[in-house]
Amino acid sequence: xxxxxxxxxxxxATTIAIAAPKPDKKxxxxxxxxxxxxYDSLCLLNTLTGDPYYLDYYKKAYKDFSPRLTPAAxxxxxxxxxxxxxxxxxxxxxxxxxxxxACDAETLDDILVTIDRPEKLRENFAKTPYWDDDSWKRFExxxxxxxxxxxxxxxxxxxxxxxxxxxxxxxxxxxxxFAEVSKYDVVPLVEQHxxxxxxxxxxxxxxLTYSQPHGIKxxxxxxxxxxxxxxxxxVRNSVHEMMHPPxxxxxxxxxxxxxxxxxxxxxxxxxxxxxxxSFGYNTLEGFAEEDCVQSLDQLINEKLGVADxxxxxxxxxxxxxxxxxxxxxxxxxxxxxxxxxxxxxxxDFLVRMNKEGKFAPGKIKALHExxxxx
Length: 374
What we know:
Blueprint (H helix, E strand, L loop, with lengths): L3 H8 L18 E6 L1 H12 L3 H14 L5 H17 L4 H9 L7 H9 L2 H8 L6 H23 L2 H24 L5 H8 L7 E7 L7 E3 L3 E5 L4 H12 L10 H11 L2 H9 L9 H21 L5 H7 L6 H13 L10 H10 L7 H10 L2
Parallel strand pairs: 1-2, 2-4
Antiparallel strand pairs: 3-4
């Protein structure tokens, strides 16, 4: 998932080198881009809480909707923010969009039915690699809040407003975006670098109006983007989001040993503990996963011809906190991963690097200084 300053570096045109792909090549990747009421309604919740982090992007939307909030809706939004962001260290839109992507609900009425009777949602979500007991407990604790908010959406006729104002622009942008991104064959490169096949060669992109500043991975080979972003961001996001998660951590003792080593590194641990919590990645496991994916997507985007310069990217991205990504990127370059290394998957690469002492305390800082200096 991408956050605000990650997107800033993506938008700096002077550092973008875009090479047009060969038009005569038969592509494996099947692209679909479309609007979504469900995900827009969930993403707008960030702004409706009044969180200053999101008002930088949606002052007008907040000005339009906030005077219409009822006391009950305001209280529900405040509790939603407390549970997911303030106490849980998560992102409201990312958490809820991921969860509700495990069901077929599309309309506001569908979502209300799911909130009232969540058994099928729980069954579906439990089958995904994103299942977590604590996250489900958080959902149970905010079901009443969500019910109140979506009933308020119904009261103000949000669905009609979205259909008339947001959808036409999103559909127009989706059509233009498809013409650009459909030239890029990202699936084979993603599969090569992960070391395993994706569950589908169809990448579905939901074109939204209220999702900034995040690019959000949901269940399946799908992710959320925003009408404000150019095609190069969508290509990069497609690479990035298809790789979450890049490994299966549960029950893997050798991978667990990697995280134990990282936990002992004071340089990396300091970034985990002291970064801007609004960026997300507020657990060591979540932070490390994001950095793993960033290092991989940098390699792939360089091959696709859409990459920002690595050194510049990690200087400006999220206040420079992605020090593990910097280290992994250099290690993969040195090891000639994936083509020249003995590893069958990125998981195997991580395990081997750990066994060889490449993540021992002080090594991540040394690799960072090798790129940026002391």
